[in-house]
Amino acid sequence: MSQRIARTTLTALALACIATLGHAQQGKLKVGLMLPYSGTYTALGVAIENGFKLRVDELGGKIGGREIEYVKVDDESDPAKATDNVNKLIKRDNVDVIIGTVHSGVTMAMAKAAKESGTVLIVPNGGADAVTGPMCAPNIFRSSFSNWQPAYAMGEVAAKQGKKTAMTITWKYAAGDESVAGFKEGFEKGGGKVTKELTVPFPNVEFQALLTEIAAAKPDAVYSFYAGGGAVKFVKDYAAAGLNKTIPLYGPGFLTDGTLEAQGDAAQGMLTTLHYADGLNTARDNSFRTAYATKFKLQPDVYAVQGYDAAQMLAIGLNAVKGDLTKKAEFSGAIEKAKIDSPRGPFTISKSHNPVQDFYLRKVEGKENKLVNVAVKGLADPGRGCKM
Ligand code: PHB
Question: Domains of the chain by range and CATH?
Answer without folding.
Answer: 28-145+281-353 (3.40.50.2300), 148-274 (3.40.50.2300)
